[in-house]
Design a protein that fits this description.
- By secondary structure, this protein is of the alpha/beta class.
- The chain has a single domain, classed as Aldolase class I (TIM Barrel, Alpha-Beta Barrel), CATH 3.20.20.70.
- 38% of the residues lie in helices and 15% in strands.
- The protein has helices at residues 62-75, 102-113, 132-141, 159-165, 172-182, 204-225, 240-245, 254-271, 290-310; strands at 25-30, 83-89, 120-124, 147-155, 189-197, 228-235, 277-279.
- It has a 7-stranded parallel sheet.
- α1 (62-75) runs parallel beside α2 (102-113) and α6 packs parallel to α8 (254-271).
- The structure holds iron/sulfur cluster.
- Iron/sulfur cluster binds next to loops.
- Iron/sulfur cluster (SF4) is lined by residues 40, 42-43, 46-47, 50, 52-53, 91-92, 126, 153.
Amino acid sequence: MSETIDFSKPPEGSLFEPVASPRGLRLALVFGNESPTGRCPFYNIQCIHCDLGAGEGVSFTPEMNRHRLEFLKQHYKEILPKVGHLVIYNYGSTLNDKELSRETRHNILEFVAGLSSVKRVSFDSREQFVTADRISEMLEYLRADQSLSITLGLESQSEEVRIGHLKKSITRDEVDAVFTALAGHGRRTAVEMNVLFQPPGITGNEAITEAVATIEYGIRMMQKHDVLVDFNFHPYYPSIKGTKFFPDHPRAMMEHAIRSLFMIIRLIKQQSPESRIFVGWNDEGHDLQPTVKKMKQLLYSPAFAAFNVSQDEDDLQI
Ligand code: SF4
């Protein structure tokens, strides 16, 4: 007899534990991708570093995602009243109607609006789906004391790195358009800009300089459009696809990541004191060197966990 898979429960690597963050207790909720293939449309076409876009191996329907939401409510029922920041993923773009229907998005937003402790919700999306109309429509579901942010996987300000090495075709004009779509709502909208530390093709001091330049670019966008920017700082780890295209590119040097963070903290203090940095380790089980990762985590996790709350460079003095 064939076994029926219960898709209401996310796979183990996508069922996250809450973590402390600069915007309160942060919990990532993962939904299925509703595209016809169940995958991100850019998977295997762009983003050579990304294994996540493969999805869960099935095309989700809005009904399946309704069951997923019910499961998540139940699973996190003790935690949810303490969560300040929810992050919504679907292995692709949560603002693309073909990957996450309006029905599913609205169900999620209604659920978020009912959580009194949640003050920030982030939706992960590629640039082209972030339109002013969609943002206004989504904000209508949220309470006035809640902000909506878009998680934008920019990874690097350098087009040589982003478009050339990572094969992620996001132009500067398209980034500008994301900020334009979010503008005009005061502090009710924000961008969470992903920064990949030591992306394929650069190492050593060059990686440090590049991460700082990416933060500077984000701050310039914030100042130009008056849209708050926070940063998700992710040290590079070897994934299946990353290793295929860049077999010799090493895992991020954590000593360099910390040196870079010292410079970034000072820069933010001077130029954008409202912005926050979140150092993320999660790989959803895609890190090809889990033992090395575990050792690094033992050493660095306590410092990053403290820093993610305090934003104080003293917490990174390891
Ligand atoms: S990085 Fe984002 S857009 Fe690119 S393949 Fe992965 S999920 Fe899709």
